[in-house]
Design brief:
The structure is a single chain. The chain contains 6 helices and no strands. With 221 residues, it is mostly helical. It has a single domain, classed as Methane Monooxygenase Hydroxylase, Chain G, domain 1 (Up-down Bundle), CATH 1.20.58.220. Helix 2 runs antiparallel to helix 3, helix 3 runs antiparallel to helix 6 and helix 4 packs antiparallel against helix 5.
Length: 221
């Protein structure tokens, strides 16, 4: 009976993490749409998603505390709860950085930016990474979790490419008008945000891998 209740609580935890992951993904999607379209509604939606992640994070923290207080979790169960508590910290930061990207679009016009294509690719990869990392937790699949790091390498490559292009443009131009210079600097900032989002997602994947490590060098899943 006690174990059945615990399994139900773990299912609730899975569902909550799936919801939190989806909110983070939506935040990134809306933030990128805000950049490309300049629509205020997309900025507002990104900000709303960020607020939702804050409240969901607190809800999951409380859920984990109840599990620890009401149940008698064994080592494997403790690893699951500990992984969830680590994951939600990185998810909250992902949403924070997504909303920061949306905020940039509120004062800098990116609707005709030549960098949107590269930034969109970075957004798409980080969203896929996050979805994969959360799926790895739910499925208890170490191979899926391990695949996240390879995707992060792509994000890093895009960041370096973006940075190289911007540096070359800035150094090759005798005079850049203030509006263009601001857009270049903010483009680099956005690319950096996506790089950090990739790093946070790798942290999530590492939390899953740590959860699946039984201490003998073998991993479940």
């Amino acid at each position: 009976m006690m174990r059945t209740r615990f399994e139900n609580q773990l299912k609730e935890l899975n569902d909550a993490l799936i919801f939190l992951g989806a909110e983070c993904e939506d935040c990134l999607t809306y933030s990128m749409q805000a950049l490309v379209t300049g629509q205020k509604v997309m900025i507002e939606r990104a900000m709303e998603c960020e607020k939702n992640t804050d409240s969901k994070k607190r809800e999951i923290q409380a859920m984990c505390m109840r599990i620890l207080q009401q149940q008698q979790p064994v080592a494997g169960d403790l690893r699951v709860v500990s992984a969830a508590l680590r994951m939600i910290i990185d998810m909250e930061r992902i949403a924070d950085q997504g909303s920061d990207i949306a905020e940039i679009s509120s004062h800098v016009d990116f609707t005709k930016s030549e960098f949107n294509k590269l930034l969109t690719k970075m957004a798409d990869i980080t969203i896929k990474m996050l979805n994969t990392a959360v799926s790895a937790f739910v499925k208890r699949d170490s191979a899926v979790a391990a695949s996240v790091e390879a995707m992060d390498n792509e994000v890093d490559e895009f960041f370096l490419k973006e940075k190289s292009i911007l540096v070359e443009m800035m150094s090759g131009s005798e005079k850049t008008d203030e509006k263009t210079a601001e857009q270049m600097l903010e483009t680099l900032m956005i690319a950096k945000y996506f790089e950090r989002i990739g790093d946070h997602t790798v942290n999530i994947a590492h939390s899953v891998l740590g959860m699946l490590d039984d201490g003998t060098g073998r991993r479940q899943g």
